[in-house]
Amino acid sequence: MTPTTTIIDLLRHGEVENDAVFCGSTNDTLTDAGWQKMVKALDNKGKWDLIVSASLERCQEFAQLIAEEDDIDLEVDDSLNEMDFGHWEGLCPEQIMKEEGELLNAWWQSPTRVSPPEGEDFHIFQSRVLAYFKNIIENNQGKRILFVSDTGPIRLIIMYILGMQDENLFRLNVDYACFSRLHIYHDEVGEKGCLIKHG
Predict the structure, then answer these.
(1) Average pLDDT over residues 89-95
(2) Is 171 annotated among the ligand-binding residues?
(3) pLDDT at residue 2 above 80?
C-alpha cells in the first residue's frame, strides 16, 4: 500500500444572532460579523476536494456558498449537527442556573453521564458524529476535506484523533469561526491522525 495523507480542515460556524443561549438544534442564523469571520478563517487555506456540512443554517449556508464559488462537491448531513440540548434550547446559562443549577453544574462536570432534560445522550451524539466522520475518511483517502460544523462535533472529532478521554469534553475550547487542521496518515499498518493546527 502506498502511504497517503488525508487532510481534514474543521471550521466552526461564526457568531449567531442568539449567541448567549444554548442553540444545539435551534436553527439560528449567522450575524454579518460571524459570516465575515468565517471568510477570514479560510483565507489562503487552499482548495478542497470535498466540503461536508451540518444541516443547520448557520453552517450549511456558508458551506454551500464556498462549494459553489469553487465548484466543489458538497455533502450536507444531520450527523454533523450539534447536540440537542432539550429543554435548555434557547436558554442562557444564567436562566438555567436559577431553576436547575445543580443539574447544569453536574453536566458541566460530567457530560458523559449527565444529559440536559429531554436532551440528547452524549454517547448517542458521539456515535453519530464519529460514525459519519470515519465513513468520510474511509471513502475519501488522500483528499482534502473541509468540515463545517458546531462546537460539539468538532470537539468530538479532535478528541478522537488525540485519544482524549470523553470526560474532558469541555477542556477543549472551540471559538466562533475556529479553524483546525488534521492529517490522517494511511499506510499498510492502518491509519493514525495528528492535530496540525487549532485556533
Answers:
(1) 94
(2) no
(3) no
Q: Which of 15, 82, 120, 186 is catalytic?
A: 82
Q: Which CATH superfamily is domain 4-198 in?
A: Phosphoglycerate mutase-like (3.40.50.1240)
Parallel, antiparallel, or unpaired for β 190-198 and 179-187?
antiparallel
Predicted local distance difference test score (pLDDT) of residue 46: 85
186 among known catalytic residues: no
Domains of the chain, residue spans: 4-198
Give the pLDDT confidence score for residue 1 in this predicted structure.
Answer: 64
Mean pLDDT of 45-51: 94
82 is catalytic: yes
| Choice among 13, 15, 120, 186 that is catalytic | 13
Band (189; pLDDT cuts 50, 70, 90): confident
